[in-house]
Automatic annotation (TrEMBL), chain A:
Highest rank taxon of the organism: Bacteria
InterPro entries listed in its UniProt record: ABC_transp_permease, BCAA_transport_permease
Places the protein is found: Cell membrane
MF annotations from Gene Ontology: transmembrane transporter activity
Pfam families: BPD_transp_2
Protein name: Amino acid/amide ABC transporter membrane protein 1 (HAAT family)
Gene Ontology terms describing biological process: amino acid transport
Membrane-related topology note: Multi-pass membrane protein
Keywords: Amino-acid transport, Cell membrane, Membrane, Transmembrane, Transmembrane helix, Transport
Homology family: Belongs to the binding-protein-dependent transport system permease family. LivHM subfamily.
Main location per the UniProt record: membrane
Entry's transmembrane regions: 6-31, 43-61, 67-86, 93-112, 142-161, 190-214, 226-251, 272-289
One GO CC annotation: plasma membrane
Species lineage: Bacteria, Pseudomonadati, Pseudomonadota, Alphaproteobacteria, Hyphomicrobiales
Automatic annotation (TrEMBL), chain B:
Pfam family, one: ABC_tran
Upper lineage: Bacteria, Pseudomonadati, Pseudomonadota, Alphaproteobacteria, Hyphomicrobiales
Natural source organism: Aquabacter spiritensis
Domain ABC transporter: 24-261
Keywords attached to this entry: Amino-acid transport, ATP-binding, Nucleotide-binding, Transport
Protein name per its UniProtKB record: Amino acid/amide ABC transporter ATP-binding protein 2 (HAAT family)
Record-level Gene Ontology MF annotations: ATP binding; ATP hydrolysis activity; branched-chain amino acid transmembrane transporter activity
Family: Belongs to the ABC transporter superfamily.
The keyword ATP-binding is assigned to this record: yes
Gene Ontology biological process: L-amino acid transport
Domain of life: Bacteria
Length: 297, 283
């Protein structure tokens, strides 16, 4: 029985881990392109989930279309946020920009509570079966879908950065903004686009978690959980974000197992990622995949 | 070569027949960094279509600043053109954003190559063509490889290329944008004499084969004048001398101060410091 539990938790960890990975990638995308540490990343999940929930419950739109409309909305939302709030801050000290993202986080959380109330709201049933049997283990259909979608998003990111014109432009901007400009890349466009993509993709994660746990302000806690993941992976590595996300997801669930079986401290699950965060910052501040400059000798 | 076409003597201009409008004209610009540091004080120069024009001068004369003023990259270094204007193909381009200037056909190869170290050679070249949306990009990559066969063999990250290869990649990347005018900042920096020769051979070839106009900033006056049609010499933010490349190379003062030859013992001695100072002002 305990083995069964361990296996179940491992699967859960991997599923949650891919979600952390996706949100981590979004976080890294913004950080790489515009050097902004976005403390409002979790609110992207929250706003995306509420938007989708609102479309589905008030307007009775089928899930597929509601989902797509929410993503489109979040894309525009991210673009607008960058253009209206963050663009005027270009050139200001990093700490000011960070304070602004913290402010945005508080503002949007309050706004969502004001608009939709403080209670968790369940999504209307979307899948005909709530759970599926995978090798004798119970897995939520929504999570199964999320893993599929997450993997697709990761593949999409990989393709985007390797082959697309705009993806290369983003990497160039991350490398050096002046060099990017000298190649004819509009750095402002790249910044805006990175926020747009980041908001839209985060919303995917928001909707998925919302389907499983209900939509509430707890969703934005995801944005904080992503920190240990991206710092473990290396702040500026997209691959690192994915690996970091998986590790944190697994660790969290294994901690839960150890805690429930042996230690009985309670809530180890919630704090283990942050212990990991502290340890990583002490022994490997660049993270697993963080870049150090190529130095030719 | 027709000397009249190369004539850019400022004093002579009003007397001569009207010259064809130059491709690039910098008119009396003043550049200020951080609101207080005056770097260019009334600089003017002209780059006629199809030529290689060399801009020479010592460290800190403002050569790189001039190029950045033209390409618009000044803004990201807190510099601003406070007076005068820059026109390209008859249109005023100061105040235009740098990415739009690239789209109009001016491409700057920055000092120190500035290739993107964590990308491959291929990705760097593809980024050079960022402003293009046509289907010829693949052919152009092949053309760059034809110019620089060595680059084709390098499949790793561009950051691991040697200095010479990086310079070649930087030039190849500029070719990918199909610019009308290339602003080249110190292509000889950190290269061995043999490589310098190779790189300048390629610059001349680019100019002849593809008809690209080039404004070349160099410390190495000798090699720059050997490929250029005409040149300007600047000091402390101003043009102090101009003329055809042959004319400059023959000038006694240029020989002494930039080519390190001629002058004789008398003028090298400290006793004649006064003469040095006087001459330095390019009377």
């Amino acid at each position: 029985m305990t083995f069964q539990l361990l296996l179940q938790l491992t699967i859960n960890g991997l599923i949650i881990g891919t979600l952390y990975g996706v949100v981590g990638m979004c976080f890294v995308l913004i950080y790489k392109a515009s050097q902004v540490v976005n403390f409002a990343q979790g609110e992207f999940l929250l706003i995306g989930a509420w938007t989708c929930w609102w479309l589905l419950t008030y307007w009775q739109i089928p899930f597929f279309w509601g989902f797509l409309v929410s993503l489109a909305f979040m894309m525009l939302f991210g673009l607008a946020l960058q253009i209206v709030v963050l663009r005027p801050l270009i050139g200001e000290p990093v700490i000011s920009v960070i304070m602004v993202t913290i402010g945005l986080s508080i503002f949007f959380q309050a706004l969502m509570k004001w608009m939709f109330g403080t209670f968790a709201q369940p999504f209307p049933p979307i899948f005909s079966v709530q759970k599926v049997d995978v090798f004798g283990l119970q897995v939520q259909t929504a999570y199964l879908m999320s893993t599929g979608v997450s993997l697709a998003i990761m593949a999409g990111f990989a393709w985007f950065f390797k082959y697309s014109r705009m993806g290369l432009a983003m990497r160039a901007t991350a490398f050096n903004q002046q060099v990017a400009q000298s190649l004819g890349i509009s750095v402002r466009q790249v910044f805006a686009l990175s926020w747009g993509i980041s908001a839209a993709v985060s919303a995917v994660a928001g909707v998925v978690v919302g389907i499983v746990n209900g939509v509430s302000s707890a969703l934005s806690f995801f944005g904080i959980k992503v920190f240990p993941a991206v710092i473990l992976g290396g702040l500026d590595s997209v691959l690192g974000a994915v690996v970091g996300g998986l590790i944190i997801g697994l660790l969290e669930n294994l901690a839960h197992y150890v805690d429930s079986q042996f230690l009985k401290w309670g809530n180890l699950y919630e704090i283990v990622p942050f212990y990991v965060l502290i340890i990583i910052l002490m022994i490997k501040p660049y993270g697993l995949f963080g870049t150090r400059d190529i130095e030719r000798v | 070569m027709a000397d009249a076409a190369l004539k850019i003597d400022r004093e002579a201009a009003p007397l001569g027949a009207p010259e064809p409008a130059p491709m690039l004209a910098v008119n009396n610009i003043e550049v200020v960094y951080n609101d207080v540091i005056l770097v260019l004080r009334g600089l003017s120069l002209k780059v006629p279509q199809g030529q290689i024009v060399a801009l020479l001068g010592s460290n800190g004369a403002g050569k790189s600043t001039t190029l950045k003023a033209i390409s618009g990259l000044l803004k990201s270094e807190d510099g601003v053109i406070t007076r005068g204007d820059v026109t390209f193909l008859g249109e005023r381009i100061n105040g235009v954003s740098p990415d739009q200037i690239v789209r109009r056909g001016i491409f700057q190869v920055m000092e120190g190559r500035r290739i993107i170290a964590d990308m491959t050679v291929m990705e760097n070249l593809r980024l050079g063509a960022f402003i293009r949306r046509d289907n010829d990009i693949k052919n152009d990559i092949e053309r760059v490889y034809a110019y620089f066969p060595r680059l084709k063999e390098r499949t790793g990250l561009a950051g691991y290329l040697s200095g010479g290869e990086q310079q070649m990649l930087a030039i190849g990347r500029a070719m990918m944008a199909r610019p009308k005018l290339i602003l080249m900042d110190e292509p000889s920096m950190g290269l061995s004499p043999l490589l310098v020769k190779e790189v300048f051979g390629i610059i001349r070839q680019l100019n002849r084969d593809l008809g690209v106009t080039i404004l070349l900033v160099e410390q190495n006056a000798r090699v720059a004048l050997s490929v250029a049609d005409s040149g300007y010499i600047m000091e402390q933010g101003k043009i102090v001398l101009d003329g055809t490349a042959a004319h400059l190379a023959a000038n006694e003062d240029v020989k002494e101060f930039y080519l390190g030859q001629g002058g004789g013992e008398a003028r090298k001695s400290f006793k004649n410091l006064k003469s040095f100072k006087r001459r330095k002002r390019w009377l």
